[in-house]
Amino acid sequence: MKTHTRLGRLALIAAIGLTNILPATASPEGTWEIESRDSRYAVSLCGDGTQLCAELIWLGNGADNEQNMPYLNTLLIDRASPTKPGEWQGKLHLFGQTADGTITQVSPDQITLRGCVALVLCKSYQMYRFAE
């Protein structure tokens, strides 16, 4: 009986460990939508194949206005460098503003963008994988 209990505990620990690994191994490539559902981005691995790029490909729900349209088909993320599995750092280009950013893939279907200007003014955004 004790052997089964130990095996059960080991299986549980292994399952928890695999759950923590999955986000890091899931590909960030694909179409992602910002939490406000007014913009979508094509995310790809670029540069040397480990860097992250994201291009604004769609505006809607009120964001498709004269002020934002010039940013359509421009890069939000341009060759952010990996810092650890599932995390990249680089410049974020947010509607005319540039910020130092960290991009973290928290699950196969969620990315967190955190941008800071002068390390003082910081804002986080959630992006979710968009399925057509």
TrEMBL record:
Keywords: Signal. Residues 1-26 form the signal peptide. Residues 30-125 form the DUF2147 domain. It comes from the Bacteria. This is DUF2147 domain-containing protein.
